[in-house]
Specification:
alpha+beta
Length: 50
């Protein structure tokens, strides 16, 4: 039974949108945050302005 061509295009389009959304979320998660970064470690207090 052949799959309807429109259904195939719909599935491919949905997969392309899903990959795009996942790529954007990964980009946002890895990007440096803006603002002030405060780090307290063994070397003392460190404040970086982004």
């Amino acid at each position: 039974m052949p799959i309807n061509r429109n259904l195939l295009f719909l599935i491919i389009g949905a997969l392309a949108v899903a990959v795009g959304v996942l790529a954007y979320n990964l980009y946002e998660a890895r990007k440096e945050p803006k603002g002030v970064h405060i780090n307290v470690g063994p070397g003392g207090l460190k404040i970086d302005s982004k």
